[in-house]
Amino acid sequence: MKNYEAVIGLEIHVELKTTSKIFCSSSAHFGAEPNANICPVCLGLPGVLPVLNRRVVEYGIRAALALNCEVARFSKFDRKNYYYPDLPKNYQISQYDLPLAQHGYLEIDTGNGRKRIGITRVHLEEDAGKLVHQGTVTTTPYSLVDYNRTGVPLLEIVSEPDIRSPEEARAYAEKLRSIIQFTGISDCKMEEGSLRVDANVSVRPAGSQEFGVKTEIKNVNSFRALQRALAYEIERQIAVMEEGGRIVQETRTWDEAKGVTLPLRSKEEAHDYRYFPEPDLPPLVLTREWVEEIYRSLPELPDARRERYINDYALPAYDAGVLTVTREIGDYFEACVRLYPYPKTVSNWVMGELARLLNATNTEITASPVRPGQLATLLKLIDDGIISGKIAKTVFEEMFHTGKDPEEVVQEQGLVQITDEAALKAVIQKVIAANPKVVADYKQGKDKALGFLVGQVMKETKGKANPQLVNRLLKESIANSDN
Amino acid sequence: MDLCFLPAYELGRLLRERKISAVELTGAIFSRLDAVEDKVKAYLLVLREEALEQARVVDAALAAGEELPPLAGIPLAVKDNICIRGVETTCASRILKGFIPPYDATVIERLREQRVVFTGKTNMDEFAMGSSTENSGFYPSANPWDLARVPGGSSGGSAAAVAAGEAVLALGSDTGGSIRQPAAFCGVVGLKPTYGLVSRYGLVAFASSLDQIGPIARNVRDCALLLGALAGHDRRDSTSVPQEVPDYTGFLVPEIKGFRIGVPREYTGEGIAPEVRAVFERVVDVLTGLGAVVAETSLPHTRYALPAYYLIAPAEASSNLARYDGVRYGLRVPAEDVVTMYKKTRSRGFGAEVKRRVMLGTYALSAGYYEAYYLKALKVRTLIRRDFDAAFEKFDLLLSPTAPTPAFRIGEKVADPLAMYLSDICTLAVNLAGVPAISVPGGFAGHLPVGVQFIGPPFAEGRLLRAAYALEQETGFTAKRPAL
C-alpha cells in the first residue's frame, strides 16, 4: 500500500452569548420554551428589517483578534438563499466575499512540537431555527418549528487546509474552543450546539502538492467524534483509491452509533446559494480606534497563560497545558495558589483528585463543591502534619461530596495524624516483634525492607501516623534493638 | 360644501376652527366611496368602523381644546403593502390572503401621532410589480378620469382613491415609478423621496435598495404636509438617513426665477407620445415664463436603466419573496412533503408577473450568471448615479414627462410585459440613483391628465416641491376633478 497524506480543513460555528439576537432585540438565550424568544424581525414577517447588534460585532472582533486575524475596516453582509422551514426568510444573512476578518492562525501541540494552523476567515451570520420531528425526518407525519435559535448570532471560523491528521484536527478544534472560551464571547458547548464543527477532508499520495477531491463531514457532535469520523473517512478514501476508484465530491454525515460516514448529498445536489449583497444593511465600517480598544480589552489567552504558568510557577509544560484548557480551570488553580504557594502541589491536586471527581460527577469546575480556599486549607493541613497525604485524599473526597471544610471532616472522622511519639513507639515495637525477618533484611542493608515496615505501621494506625515520624522512629528503634 | 375634494390643509383649518367635525369629514369620504367605489375599485379593504372611531377621538380632542397636528382627522388611504397592526395586509397577492401584521409600519406610527384617519387599504399590482394595477391578485382598479383606462401602478389604488375623492391623501410606494406614474395617470401629485428619507420598516419589500414610501395628494401643499409627517430617521431601518426634516411647506413659494432646469434629451425623444410631448413643451414654456432657465442636457446611460432595473429589482425580489412559502402565514396548499407544499403554494399564490420576476431574479443571481447580469447591473447603476451627479452640477432640477403616454386602456398591455415595462421608462433611473422626484399635473391630453416629473439631487425635496408649487399656481391643473 502506498503512503497517503490527509488534508483537512475545519469550519467551526460558534454561537455568541450576547443578550439579544444579531438583528433584533429578542433574547438570544438557550433553553427557553419553544418560540418564546421570537419577534416579527427574527420571524422574518413581511415588511420587517434587520438592525445589526453592535455587541455582536464587538464579540466577533474580539474572537478574530484572539485568533490573530486582520480585522477588516470595511466588510459587508450578504444573503445566502436557500429554502428550509427553519429559516423564516428562506435566506440567511451572512458575510460572503468581504468577511469581518481574515488571515489568522492558532498553534497546536503535536507529536513533533508546535504547529501553526492558518485561519482563512472569520465572519458573522445569523443562526437558523430548529425542526422537531415526530420520530425521524423521513417518516415524521409533520414537523414542528422552534424559532428561538433563529437570529442567534454565529461566528463562522474557517481554517486553512493545514491540518494533516484526525489528532491535529481535534487539537485544533479544542484549542480554538479554549481561545474563544477565554475571550468570553461564547460558552462553546458542543452538546448545546453553541460550537459546531464541519470537516473537509481529502487524501493524496504523500509528497504530492495537489489536493485530492474532498468530502465534507457533518453531524460531528463531539471532539472525539470529530477524530473518529476523520479517521474513518481517511481510511475510506484510501480504500477507494487503493481499489482504483475515485473519490466523489459530496457531503457526508457521521453516524456515531455505526461509526461510519454516509453520503448525504452530492456536488450536483449542492445548493446554489445565489449570494448577493444584503440591501437592508449598509456595509460594516469599523474605526481603527474601536478595534484597538477591543484589542486592549482582550483577556490573557491560553498560550500566554500557559507560558506564564511555566515561567512564574515553574510548572511542567504538560501541567501548564492542562490548566489552561479553559479559563475556569486556570482561574481555580490561581485562586488556590494565591492561598497556598506551592504551584506544583496545587497542580497535582487540580489535575488529579479534583479533575477525577469533577469528571465522575459531570460537574463544571465553577460549580466544584470544593472551593479553591478549601483545597488550599487542606494542603496546609498536610504541610502542618495534621493529616497525611494519603488521608488527605479521603478528606478531599468527603469535602467534595459534602462541601464541608477540611478541618471539619478531619475532626468528625478523627483523622488527625498521630504525632505522639510514645503512642507510635508502641505500635513500632509491635511491628518489629512481628517481622523479625524483615528487620534482619533491613539490617543487612536492604533499604526496601524499611518501607514495608513503615507500611505496616501505617496499616496499624489506619493511615493516621505521620510517615516521616514513623520512618525516623523505626530506624531509631531498630538501631536501639542492636544494643 | 363638498368636503371630499377640499385640500387637506383647508380641511385641517376647518377642523381646528370646529366648522366641521372629523366624523362628518370621514362620513363624507365614505359616502363618496359608496357612490363611486363600484366603478373605481380603488380599495381592497375599507376600514369604515375603525376610521370613524379614529375620527371620534380627534373630535373629542378638538372639543377638549387640544392643539392637534396639521393632519389630524384627515382621511388617508394606505397602499396594501404597508403594514397596519391588526389589519389584513396582502400586497394584492393571494399568497398573503389572511395575513394580519402584529405591528405598524413606522410611517403608520408617525401618522397615528398626527391623528390621521385611515380609510382603508388600497389596490395595487401584486407585490408592487406592475404599472397598471392589472396585476392585482384580486381585481384591477379603474382610472377615475376614464373608467376604461388603468389608473397606473403599482400604487394605482392610492392614486385613484385620491383622484376620485375617496380619500384626501394616500400613501404609495415607489420602486421604479409606482407613485409617480399613477399620480400622472390620475392627475394628482406624487412624490418619491430620496432613498433613506422615509423609513421602510413595515413596507413589504419588493426591491429593498429601490423601495421608498411616499405621499400622494391632490395638491402640492398637501403633498408637502404629508411628506413632512413621513420623513425622518428610524432606528428600525438601517438604510434610513439620520437627517433633520425641514418644514416642507416652508419651501412653497410660487417663485422659481433663475432656477436652472435641465431637460434630459433621453426622456423627451423616441417613445414619448406626441400628446405627452405637447403637454411637456407647454410646461417648459410656463416655467420659462416664470423665469426659470430651461436647457437641454443628457443622462447618457439612460438606455441602460431599464435592463439594469430589470436585473436588480427582480434579483432582490426573488430573495425578498422567498419567505412566502406556506410555512408560517398566508396561503398554504397542503401536500405530501414540504418541498411539494412550497411549490404548490407558490404556484397558486403568486400571479404571472410575480413569477416572471422571481424567475428572472433567480436566474440573474445564479452561479455562472451573477457577474454577467447582477454585478454588471450594479456597475451600470453606478454609472447612472454619476449621470445624475454630473447633471446636478449644472442644474438645480431636471424635468421630464412622468410617463411616455397618458393612461392606457385596461387590457391594452397585459399580454406584452415589455410594453408595460416601458411605461416606467422615465421614472426607473431615479430609483436606481436614489434621488427624489415629484410628478405633478402638467396638462391634459384630451380628457386624460398628463404628468411632468421634477427630479432633484438627494434631499432636495423642498426644491422639488417649490418648483411643482410654482407650476401648480400658474396652471391650476390640480384643481381639476374627474367627472365620475
Automatic annotation (TrEMBL), chain B:
UniProt-listed Enzyme Commission number(s): 6.3.5.7
Name assigned to this protein: Glutamyl-tRNA(Gln) amidotransferase subunit A
Keyword Ligase included in the entry's annotation: yes
Top EC group: ligase
Pfam name, any one: Amidase
Catalytic activity field: L-glutamyl-tRNA(Gln) + L-glutamine + ATP + H2O = L-glutaminyl-tRNA(Gln) + L-glutamate + ADP + phosphate + H(+)
Domain Amidase: 24-465
Keywords: ATP-binding, Ligase, Nucleotide-binding, Protein biosynthesis, Transferase
Entry similarity comment: Belongs to the amidase family. GatA subfamily.
Subunit comment: Heterotrimer of A, B and C subunits.
Function: Allows the formation of correctly charged Gln-tRNA(Gln) through the transamidation of misacylated Glu-tRNA(Gln) in organisms which lack glutaminyl-tRNA synthetase. The reaction takes place in the presence of glutamine and ATP through an activated gamma-phospho-Glu-tRNA(Gln).
Gene Ontology terms for molecular function: ATP binding; glutaminyl-tRNA synthase (glutamine-hydrolyzing) activity; transferase activity
UniProt key word Protein biosynthesis: yes
GO BP annotation list: translation
Active site: 79, 154, 178
GO cellular component: glutamyl-tRNA(Gln) amidotransferase complex
